[in-house]
Amino acid sequence: MPKFRELAGYAAAIAPVIDAAHVNVHASARRAVTELSEASGVSPGFLHDLRFMLPLRSLTRTDLGTIYRYGDAEGRESGIQEHLREGALAEDGEGALRVTTAGLEFIRRLYDLHGAVVERIWTGHDLPGLARLAGRALDHAERVPGGALALMAPPYEPDGTAPGVLLFNRLAVLRYHRADAHAAAWQAEGLSAAEIVGLRDGPVRARIEADTNLRAAAPYEILSEDERRTLYDGLLKLI
User: Fold this and answer.
1) pTM across the whole model
2) Residue 91 backbone phi and psi in degrees, to 5
3) What is the rounded CA–CA span in Å between residue 31 and residue 29?
4) Closest C-alpha to 114, from 174, 163, 148
5) Tens-digit pLDDT profile for the chain (239 aa)?
6) Contact by Cβ (8 Å): 103, 42
């Protein structure tokens, strides 16, 4: 691991490593997820993205807008209606969306599928140790009211969940802390979601990235320097 004078530097460096480890599992599981969807008649959609929160909490369309802050309402509504038609989600009279028995079964099988994938691609690594470090960082991450992390954490971790799946999902949830940090940074510059997406490199972008790293560093304060090195180096080996 490179040496960092400040935690913001560590936050900047570990973010793409977390992203790469997370994406690696999704890429390796893509075919199996497609086959599961075809066999079950349930589209992955929100069940796939929100697998670690739907078994624990309902959510609203406003919540989805927070989680997918760079998306569009029409696309989200299309996904909702698809899940409602499939019977994977149900909507109550107040607009709250809850996962159904069929949706829970899909998520259970998804966890099993991801467990098989990480066992294959991450074999030989200290997954329990990395999962513990990621879990401590996640527990230390501030859940800002109205932010995505407040909706996504804590993740669904039923008894018997494989260490690799715990790590995979904890990293996935931890990414929402950085997403909230980034949103707070561009909002502090007076920008909208559409404006930050189209913002070119330059002084404003540089300020936003620096502010993002400062805000995103907080979860790693709980870890010692050796633990931060272990987490960084351990995740790097997974990609």
Assistant:
1) 0.94
2) -120, 130
3) 6
4) 163
5) 666 778 999 999 999 999 999 999 999 999 999 999 999 999 999 999 999 999 999 999 999 999 999 999 999 999 999 999 999 999 999 999 999 999 999 999 999 999 999 999 999 999 999 999 999 999 999 999 999 999 999 999 999 999 999 999 999 999 999 999 999 999 999 999 999 998 999 999 999 999 999 999 999 999 999 999 999 999 999 99
6) yes
